[in-house]
Amino acid sequence: MVWETPYFSYAVRELPKGCQLCVRGEKLVLFTTGVCPRDCFYCPLSPWRRGDVVYANERPVKNVDDVIEEARIQEAKGAGITGGDPLARLERTVEYIRTLKENFGKDFHIHLYTTGALATEKALSKLYDAGLDEIRFHPDLFNPNSKLFKVEIENIRKAFDFDWDVGGEIPSIPGQLDRMKWYAEFLDKHGAKFLNVNELEFSEMTLKTLLDMGFQPVSDESSAIKGSLELGLEFLEWGEENTSLSYHLCTAKLKDAVQLKNRLRRMARNVARPYMEVTEEGTLRFGIAEYDDLDELYEFLVEEAEVPSEWLHINREKGRIEMPEEVAVELADAVEGDVKFFIVEEYPTWDRLEVERIPLP
């Protein structure tokens, strides 16, 4: 039976362990390289991640300590390793897996996504020995006559020689039901545990290509592609009747409304300063004041406006003084001149993405 999860997604049987942690915001997203042996027409990767770069969530990684720090801030219980193809930088990926296990223990659950093109027996052995718990293969399913696809399928077979959870991860592309069924039967025959299906979405990088191919958005407000969700549900119904795999249809809404929000909440409680309010969405809300001379403004606020110094924080990087929202509201009424006051909301992430700014009169 296909059942609807509390996370706006759909499943057959049980969710994979990696997904159970992910939907609760408990998985660190570890991007170990943007390098990939394939160039899929639906790949949403942004231009600045298409090179050989490393990110832990939104944090650019200079060394493995950055990864550990980000996992601690998030209170992560596991990591999902992605790319590009993480196996394109195998030694780096293996080092991160081993270091995360050493720092957070064997119960820190790590899953990894790969095309399979580089998953030689030697590579798989290194990943397994480092402590990888779950491996998810995304072969070039929609280009079955390519030499690369044949290599990927042969490599996937080798993964079943190791004692970890093996599964698949593919997009739900309208018109490709037969290829999806073929892959499900292949995985089921070899003893895989699950097959995850992702609702196809437009991204900045794929918009023109997908429109040119005839795909349409569900609505003006959504990045999801028309027909993808319906195909995914049809596929899950078929899979429940014809295979023993578990299935998870991961929707566009899950990623934004659930997974991201839950991760932000976990991070917010660890990075919020005393003057910041953590919202229901997991953002940080507080007041700011902007002025040409921050030191002069700070001195004025403390000595003339008699604002307690512990309520104020000079953020020189962003050129502002931060404070509780209610203090900014009061000061906006009382302070004359060129000082500008705002209420802002930011993500509690490394890049502190600003999602709202309200000017105070």
Automatic annotation (TrEMBL):
InterPro entries: Aldolase_TIM (IPR013785), DUF8061 (IPR058374), MJ0021-like (IPR040087), Radical_activat_CS (IPR001989), rSAM (IPR007197), rSAM_sf (IPR058240). Its cofactor is [4Fe-4S] cluster. CDD domains: Radical_SAM. Keywords: 4Fe-4S, Iron, Iron-sulfur, Metal-binding, Oxidoreductase, S-adenosyl-L-methionine. The keyword Transmembrane does not apply. The keyword Metal-binding applies. One of its GO terms (molecular function) is metal ion binding. SUPFAM superfamilies: Radical SAM enzymes. Residues 21-240 form the Radical SAM core domain. Belongs to the organic radical-activating enzymes family. This is Radical SAM core domain-containing protein.
